[in-house]
TrEMBL record:
Enzyme Commission number(s) from the entry: 3.2.1.52
Pfam family, one: Glyco_hydro_20b
Catalytically driven reaction(s): Hydrolysis of terminal non-reducing N-acetyl-D-hexosamine residues in N-acetyl-beta-D-hexosaminides
UniProt keywords, alphabetically: Glycosidase, Hydrolase
Active site: E397 (proton donor)
Record-annotated Beta-hexosaminidase bacterial type N-terminal domain positions: 167-220
Domain Glycoside hydrolase family 20 catalytic residue range list: 224-567
Similarity field: Belongs to the glycosyl hydrolase 20 family.
GO molecular function, one term: beta-N-acetylhexosaminidase activity
Name of the protein in its database record: beta-N-acetylhexosaminidase
Length: 597
């Protein structure tokens, strides 16, 4: 089957030359946003960005042209906007078509430049060199931090285990801080915490990539307690080994919070025993499944992280000094959840609210008793698996005017003197956060959770500012602890550049390596106690294979690492010089600077 598609202005021009007779054939695909048919076929079905197009009957070798266009004024920016997961369905069989070649690995083109200092990301707080280096084949130590660092080095194919002695002394230093004294006789680590010892060993491991140990003293410690990276495993199911490889990369960059986004409109990836229907219906998408083949050309796509796998991933993270933050979604981004449990929506709701992804009916109704039964079981079931003691509740992208045409929600609003959609959202998320808090959890949510006449989520919640930096500053002024994750700087699903041959989303910005450090997370000094960290994000709507993630994350995770750790704003030029030392391969493992790229 010969298939081709290219961008022409606002249109996606597709051609198909079948190798067999096509009768009653249907073209299936997803996009970056909802699609519509311009010519060459008729829409048969649409759900969000997923569309099915009925084609005319075709003979073998007969060329057929059809045109699609993004609805809502979206303009394709690059190759990632071409049909995602294209396939032909005919006679009960799904025939995958050639996908668009994904990704653009800008890292491979980065030169290895001489560094005036240490080739380490993030840069240490201070480095006092003694003017010499010695050859070291590896270091010898003992204890949990050494064994975990050595195991990390083994996975990264780095020479670390050896005979040069490492001594650890306890000193009164802040959390995750350390001193590293490299002498001609031994390495001395001073720290007060497991994290500090582990990060000292990571720094040592990185220095030894050259085979030589620089003699001198490093004094180091992080700027922020929260140094995070998010991964959306709802839109694309990543293998557990891939998640562990991401955790390894985070550890090499001294990041310490993994935000695990396993629930969204399209899937719920972790079983909750009290809600078995979630695993039954929202584990897989595709032919004959509860939801169609969103973002995939495979007849069936998906998977579930069973409880043993979850525990293994958490243990892997803990060894790397990383806490795992789970996220459920409420009240929006609940298309699948609401479909599985229809009693979470008012049957008399006459509203037609549509999410930015093109989904209708993807919001739970807080006036329905079933909503609270489901949400409380989610809180109980998920929190029981994760020892971090924090739970992200979601609360983003509520469609405009939601609940304004549902009698039950309107009655609830009148009962509590609420006037707007945002007021009811604030009331809803505050109630859910209070329940989480009663279970000993610290709630977290996206920036919208601060909205509403009641003052928002409350309950000592952490808010994540994503549409930009402004909402985070407002939340910090209102007394919330804030993690900055502005899309214009730290959304790594955004394309690197505006080149049409690039790959990625573009609704927020094109995010180059320099963009990750060309901003200040704390522009107002009096908010420094409230802005507790920074975090990168990776959303997976256009990811169809695990390996496609790495060229998007890197080298931009280097900027995240430097912003999260360094007390002074890093220079963009220095970051670009260091980037050549942190090129990764298709499995997320660091490559040697002298390897052919």
């Amino acid at each position: 089957m010969d298939y081709n598609c290219h961008i022409d202005g606002d249109d996606l021009l597709c051609s198909l030359i079948p190798d067999r007779k096509l009768q009653a054939a249907v073209f299936c695909c997803s996009g970056m946003a909802p699609l519509q048919v311009v010519s060459g076929g008729t829409e048969k079905r649409a759900l969000g960005s997923y569309i099915e197009v009925s084609l005319p009957d075709l003979n073998p070798g007969e060329v057929h042209h059809f045109t699609l266009r993004y609805a809502g004024g979206f303009t394709p920016a690059n190759r990632a906007w071409l049909p995602i997961g294209p396939a032909i369905r005919m006679g009960g069989e799904l025939l995958p078509l050639p996908p668009t070649h994904a990704g653009r690995d800008v890292s491979r083109n980065l030169p290895v430049l001489p560094i005036d200092g240490l080739a380490v990301v993030p840069q240490p707080t201070s480095w006092d060199p003694q003017g010499e280096t010695i050859a070291v084949d590896g270091v010898s130590g003992s204890g949990r931090a050494y064994e975990n660092a050595a195991a990390l080095a083994d996975r990264q194919k780095l020479a670390f285990r050896g005979t040069f002695p490492v001594v650890v002394n306890k000193r009164d230093l802040p959390q995750d801080a350390y001193r590293l004294r490299n002498t001609p006789e031994q390495v001395i680590i001073e720290t007060a915490s497991y994290g500090g010892e582990f990060y000292a060993l990571v720094t040592l491991m990185t220095l030894l990539r050259s085979g030589e140990l620089p003699i001198g003293e490093i004094s180091d410690g992080p700027r922020f307690d929260w140094r995070g990276q998010h991964l959306d495993t709802a839109r694309h199911f990543y293998a557990p080994d891939t998640i562990c490889a991401l955790l390894d990369l985070m550890a090499m960059l001294k990041l310490n919070r993994f935000h695990w986004h396993f629930a969204d409109d399209e899937a719920f990836r972790i079983p909750v025993p009290a809600l078995p229907e979630l695993e039954q219906h929202l584990t897989f998408r595709g032919e004959g499944q509860f939801l169609p083949g969103l973002f995939t050309a495979a007849p069936m796509q998906g998977g579930s992280y069973d409880h043993e796998t979850v525990r293994q991933i958490i243990a892997h993270a803990a060894a790397l000094n990383i806490e795992v933050l789970p996220e459920i979604e409420a009240p929006a981004h609940a298309l699948g959840l609401a479909a599985v449990y229809p009693d979470t929506r008012d049957p008399d709701d006459t509203g037609g609210e549509t999410s930015v992804q093109g989904y209708r009916g993807n919001v739970l109704n807080p006036a329905m008793p079933k909503t609270w039964d489901v949400l409380e079981k989610l809180v109980d079931g998920i929190s029981a698996l994760f020892p971090f003691g924090h739970l992200h509740l979601g609360c983003d992208e509520l469609p405009k005017n939601t609940w304004m045409h549902t009698p039950r929600a309107l009655a609830l609003m009148q009962e509590h003197d609420l006037q707007t959609t945002q007021d009811l959202q604030g009331w809803t998320i505050a109630k859910l956060a209070a329940y989480a808090s009663s279970k000993g959890l610290r709630p977290a949510a996206w920036e919208e959770a601060a909205q509403g006449s009641n003052g928002g989520i409350g309950s000592n919640a952490i808010l994540f500012s994503w549409t930009g930096q402004g909402p985070g500053l407002e939340a910090a002024r209102a007394g919330y602890d804030v993690v900055m994750t502005p899309a214009q700087h730290l959304y790594f699903d955004m394309a690197h550049t505006g080149d049409p041959d690039d790959w990625g989303a573009s609704w927020a910005a094109f995010v180059d390596l320099e963009d990750t450090v060309n901003w200040d997370p704390v522009p107002e000094e009096d908010l420094s106690d409230r802005i507790i960290g920074v975090q990168g994000a990776f959303w997976s709507e256009f990811t169809t294979e695990d390996s496609q993630m790495w060229p998007m994350l890197m080298p931009r995770m280097l900027g995240l690492s430097m912003m999260a750790w360094q007390n002074e704003k890093p220079a963009a030029d220095a970051l670009r010089e260091l980037a050549g030392y942190y090129v990764i391969d298709e499995s997320g493992r660091l490559m040697s600077p002298d390897m052919d790229r």
